[in-house]
Amino acid sequence: MSHPVRSRVREVPGPYAVPRRGRSLLDAESVAVLHRAAEALLEDVAGLTTALVADLGEQEPAYRAAIDADAAAIRREVQQSLRHNIASLIRPRECRDVARRTSRAIAATRAESGVPLDAVLHAFRLGGAMVWQGLVDETARRNPEDIRLLVHVAADVWNFVDEHCALVGGAYREAERRLAWRRQNRLRLTAAALLDGTVRVTDLPEAAALLGLPLDGRYAVVAAAPVGPHPAGALLALPAEVRVWWHATDGGQLGIVRLADEDATGERVVRPDAAPGGGYENGELADRTSKLMLRHAGHGDGFGRGAEAATLRAMGEAGSGPPVHPAGPAALAALLRTAPSVRAAVGPVVTGLAAVGESRVLAEVALETCPPGGGVVLLDEQLPDALVVSAPDLGRALERRVLGPLDAIDPADCELLVGTLTTWLATQGSAQRAATRLYCHRNTVLNRLRRFEQLTGRSLAEPSDLVEISLALTARRLLAK
């Protein structure tokens, strides 16, 4: 604890020092009295330590817990502080810096152990009060008349205590910032390892505990990327009731989303995390999820509360109720909110944190199939497109083989044939519906389709040809970037 005094005569003024007066005989006598009393306290620093530790255990619950956890460590740091600071009363020039370093070290240690700053500052003030009382008692025992001289250094004693309290506050907050950065960096690296699929099996339990997620839960990864230049901030957001860990990447944003568990019959259910003193029945949570989906359906309504604040944190921590876990990718997509001109995709469901990297890989594949203007897609609904973008070289080879002959005709004519064929496929092979969409006659559509068959040597009535044609059109659309 920090209790030393800077004498008027020998101490360089610190930030809390009183203005220096001219030297006088009274000053010299006061310092001499102070030194004699301090020397006596220094000889009994072990007794002072015992008394201060006892007072801390009685008056400060946080220190009581720390003493119960490691009494020897608390006693050691109290004794070091008392010894260095009392020595500063006698030899301020030699001992002042050591006393300051000791105070800073104690502040950092207590910050790391979780003792609140108010409790640490109270401990230092208790120590200061105990040292001052010891000086008074020792002076009164030796020569009661010298008490009047000791009063002249009282202001310096308490100014020095205040100075050390300021040092402690600064060191404590610096340690807090350092600890917060370490924790955030650890969270970021843990989430990155899970998403990359590089986390070691032996590290999975620690990762689950760190992120507050079950080791064998059901998960899906969401991926997002801006269409073009995008201002700083989150690209995706989910309601606060949904448990998700956001992770920023160089080109976008990823999120690990906890999904609902499955019951014994394999049916997906929405179940709250266990919490003392509360919780919802499954039916209530299902109703709550439905309301959330209705409230947050649509993807252009901006961000929810807290979404801009961080790229790596649990968005569900601020929820007013228990966490809500979407039943599957479709329910998750309905809850997603995106910023304008953002592409987003939901990967497949995986079981266990170890498989999160698999969902991330496929979510990024699905992201490549997203419309150029943005929106949200599900991998399960984009499998043919995902197949093409996952093997782009093969996709381009298929496109050249099937659609290559069209490159020999006029580009506008080629675009007309490809557009007609695409519309015909989108209308389930109905020439009439395709003609309605294209604002032309049904026979015109049929003529264009026959010409396509003649140029490419493919038959739209042949299932195998139709599959190749469809995949080739998909490759031309997705791989033309």
Automatic annotation (TrEMBL):
InterPro entries (UniProt xref): CdaR-like_regulators, PucR_C-HTH_dom, PucR_C-HTH_sf, RsbRD_N_dom
Record-annotated PucR C-terminal helix-turn-helix domain positions: 417-475
Sequence ranges assigned to domain RsbT co-antagonist protein RsbRD N-terminal in this UniProt record: 47-187
Protein's name according to its UniProt entry: PucR family transcriptional regulator
Organism this protein belongs to: Streptomyces triticagri
Taxonomic lineage of the native organism: Bacteria, Bacillati, Actinomycetota, Actinomycetes, Kitasatosporales
